[in-house]
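Design a sequence for this backbone.
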């Protein structure tokens, strides 16, 4: 009798788990479709903005469309975490090429905000998944630009770490330990109302899956340095 009840209970739990997984899959499919569909009006908006004669207005509109596109990509990347391991391709990658690819995307923000950019000591090769590491670097760079009003950014390799340093508003000590939590926006996010609480969570999650480590050093009023530590770094041979 007891064995029958246990078997019945196990069957019931399995069915509930299957139903929950099915609902989750349907939800992921829905949002993935939504993200792809919204890409069409974003592309159309870019074409319309290209015809705006006023240069200043045009740049402002381009910046806002870029933000919408970035937030949309953030959602898509978050959804893809479910099948992360099915999408990994490890290879040797030049750090400098990765950094410059991301920086080019955000060139307009550096120009409009009048921020400096110092790239140095990036001539290194690492073993990673290029596409996913680009996501990490982009999220960190985006955050740095968001909270830096003057001064600039410095990106460099220090030993086995890629460092992204800014002269922004900094992060309170009480928030530093929690910035990688999902949905946590912290004092800065609440102050500016610009944080989704997903970017750094996504960065840490991806970094760990790639075998990299990520940590933050920050001081309020002076700036923040994000460090990504790689398991294997090789100097480029002359």
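Sequence:
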């Amino acid at each position: 009798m007891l064995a029958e009840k246990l078997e019945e209970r196990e069957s019931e739990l399995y069915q509930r788990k299957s139903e929950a997984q099915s609902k989750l899959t349907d939800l992921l499919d829905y949002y993935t479709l939504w993200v792809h569909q919204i890409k069409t009006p974003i592309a159309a908006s870019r074409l319309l903005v290209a015809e705006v004669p006023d240069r200043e207005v045009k740049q402002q509109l381009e910046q806002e469309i870029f933000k919408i596109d970035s937030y949309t990509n953030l959602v898509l990347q978050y959804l893809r975490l479910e099948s992360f391991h099915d999408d990994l391709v490890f290879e040797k990658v030049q750090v400098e090429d990765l950094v410059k690819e991301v920086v080019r995307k955000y060139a307009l923000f550096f120009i409009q905000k009048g921020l400096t950019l110092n790239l140095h000591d990036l001539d290194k090769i690492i073993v990673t998944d290029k596409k996913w590491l680009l996501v990490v670097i982009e999220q960190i760079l985006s955050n740095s630009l968001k909270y830096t009003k003057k001064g600039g950014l410095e990106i460099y390799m220090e030993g086995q770490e890629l460092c992204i340093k800014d002269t922004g508003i900094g992060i309170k000590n009480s928030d530093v330990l929690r910035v990688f939590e999902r949905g946590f926006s912290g004092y800065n996010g609440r102050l500016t109302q610009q944080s989704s609480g997903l970017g750094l969570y996504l960065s840490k999650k991806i970094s760990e899956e790639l075998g990299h480590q990520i940590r933050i050093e920050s001081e309020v009023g002076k700036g923040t340095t994000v460090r990504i530590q790689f398991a294997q770094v090789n100097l480029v041979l002359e």
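The radius of gyration is 21 Å.
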